[in-house]
Design a protein that fits this description.
This protein is about 25% helix and about 20% strand. It is of the alpha+beta class and about 475 residues long. Helix 3 crosses helix 9, helix 4 packs across helix 5 and helix 6 runs parallel beside helix 9. The chain starts with a helix and ends in a 9-residue tail after the last strand. It contains eleven helices and 19 strands. The protein is globular. It folds into three domains: about 70 residues, no CATH class; about 200 residues, no CATH class; about 160 residues, no CATH class.
């Protein structure tokens, strides 16, 4: 629709200036429109609609102002901190106008991606040839926002529909489905044994049969990026915006369109590499600097709420509250030995943090880990988590969650005053933090413990007891 409107506008301007001396402003406008269309059509070469073209970035005609749309694209985001694991992937794709953020300046890296959204990203990232005729899906109206992107994803072989002639555009896409899509659209086939390749993942047996070949092909091309632990694919988990950014980036590296991240980059720690010899590797924690160390600096600790429950923890901004977590999987050293067994208790607390000087959030600080009957002091922190409006939370989100005393008071005030909603019946009690009274704003922080990233800042060696 935007292109049609621009074509009409160009015809009008051409008629306006027909038979007259072409002004430099109009020539500049023509050049800008050429740049705009090249960007909009996924960097394809395009002849200008204008009869002349001069270099310019901004053109002004009385009553009309044109600015190069690409220059307005934001490439830094308020919720993608400098140490966020996927930042290099996200910011490079944003610079190329393959992905974009939200009007409030955020990127929402942990937000799930739908099949329609994935199709739109694929459309911008790749320019593969058509391999099959288009088809219509019963659940894709002609005016659906992603209809053209879905059509291209289908005709180029990236995505397919379901046997009942639906596409399910609003269905969240699992990681393994995204990887299979990239392998299919980029015509990647695995070499050697598929099973041997997938044995790299400790949860490789969870990969569905339909996806094993495509996932193996993506693994062999270094397209797979696993956060927070390269050894676990979590194939059936919904892919987040950060996950998809990482996959797309690595796929473009495979096509020699992007340069590979430098090995010293923290983000490179999560790329699953496949050596030329055919031996895949998910890497190991950095070797401790001392023989007495049991855990190396930069090791990532996967955690969960005690008992393995997928509960949500709800806090208020500015609140400090202590709570224990536990390791959700074994931690290995560089020799492959278990140094911290699954289920080991991590002691720590959530502390308030200011993000970019303005946004309120929280960060988990681990203080010690108990291994057997010995306690080891550790210095590990999570990525910061930002606050969200309590009014945006549904009872489904809240049910079964565990909230601090202050968060329960806030939620009761914001959500429980109307309709007699009993917040206490939905939530467990996490206990009291250091806040003095119930907060006056309406923001809370929702924490999913399994998504926390605890990075060890120093080698761990000496036990407390």
């Amino acid at each position: 629709m935007k292109i049609i409107l621009f074509v009409i506008q160009e015809l009008f301007l051409w008629l306006l200036f027909k038979g007259k001396i072409i002004s430099k402003f109009y020539l500049q406008h023509c050049s800008l429109m050429k740049l705009y269309f090249m960007k909009s059509l996924n960097r394809l070469a395009l002849r200008s609609f204008c009869p002349f073209a001069l270099g310019a970035s901004v053109a002004i005609i009385p009553g009309i102002s044109f600015v190069n749309a690409a220059s307005a694209q934001n490439t830094t985001f308020t919720d993608v901190e400098s140490n966020y694991w996927a930042r290099p992937f996200i910011e490079r794709l944003a610079r190329e106008d393959i992905i974009a953020g939200f009007p409030d300046g955020s990127f929402k890296p942990n937000q799930p991606v739908t099949r329609a959204q994935f199709a739109a990203i694929v459309r911008k990232a790749f320019n593969e040839g058509i391999v099959r005729n288009s088809r219509s899906f019963s659940d894709i109206p002609a005016r659906y926002w992603a209809a053209s992107a879905i059509e291209k994803a289908y005709t180029t072989g990236f995505m397919s529909g379901y046997p009942d002639n639906t596409f399910k555009p609003e269905q969240q896409i699992p990681k393994v489905q995204a990887l299979v899509s990239l392998s299919s659209g980029l015509k990647l086939d695995p070499s050697g044994s598929v099973d041997r390749t997938l044995n790299i993942f400790r949860d490789g047996n969870e990969i569905p049969d339909y996806a094993r070949s495509g996932t193996a092909a993506a693994t062999q091309r270094n397209i797979v990026v696993n956060y927070p632990n390269r050894a676990y694919l979590n194939p059936n988990e919904v892919a987040t915006r950060a996950d998809i950014a990482a996959f797309i980036y690595q796929a473009l590296v495979n096509k020699n369109e992007f340069k590979a991240l430098p090995s010293r980059s923290e983000a490179a720690d999560y790329i699953v590499t496949y050596q030329q010899s055919g031996t895949p590797t998910t890497g190991s924690p950095t070797t401790p600097s001392s023989d007495n160390s049991i855990l190396a600096r930069n090791t990532v600790l996967p955690v969960q709420y005690p008992g393995g429950n997928d509960v949500k923890l709800i806090l208020t901004p500015g609140e400090t509250i202590s709570t224990n977590l536990e390791l959700s999987s074994n931690i290995l050293n560089s020799a492959g030995q278990v140094v911290i067994p699954q289920g080991s208790q991590v002691k720590g607390q959530f502390r308030p943090v200011s993000i970019n000087g303005t946004t309120q959030g929280t960060q988990y600080y681990a203080e010690s880990v108990t291994i057997g009957n010995r306690i080891y002091p550790i210095n590990a922190i999570s990525d910061p988590l930002v606050a969200t409006s309590a009014q945006n939370l549904s009872t489904t989100t809240l049910k079964g969650g565990i909230a601090s005393t202050a968060a329960q008071l806030l939620l009761s005030r914001v959500l429980g005053s109307g309709g007699g909603l009993d917040i206490g019946s939905l939530l467990g009690n996490l206990g009291g933090g250091t806040v003095q009274t119930a907060p006056t704003n309406s923001s809370v922080i929702v924490v999913e413990p399994r998504s926390l990233r605890l990075r060890v800042l120093n080698d761990v060696s000496t036990a407390i007891e």
